[in-house]
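During data preparation, we tokenized the protein backbone, and the record follows.
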Amino acid sequence: MSTEDLTVKSALDQLTNAVTSLESAVGRRLENQKDAEQSQEELKSMISDRSKLAEELDGAQNRANQLEEANREVSRRLVTAMETIRAVLDRGN
């Protein structure tokens, strides 16, 4: 092989290596972009789930507050009823 042939072969080898490196870089970039898109979708899903859970928590808290208020009212009425029964029993004696 002549020197010129070696120079051309060396240049072609360098070009091949550069193209291979470029293809690898593009492949990694596409994979990273795909991962980023998947992460964005997961984030959207988590935000949606969080909103739903927050709504459910608010509803449960409202229900707990209603039950607590009903419990206080029942308790108040029981005390009143017991006092009334005691008063009636005391009058009977």
Observations:
- The longest helix spans residues 3-92.
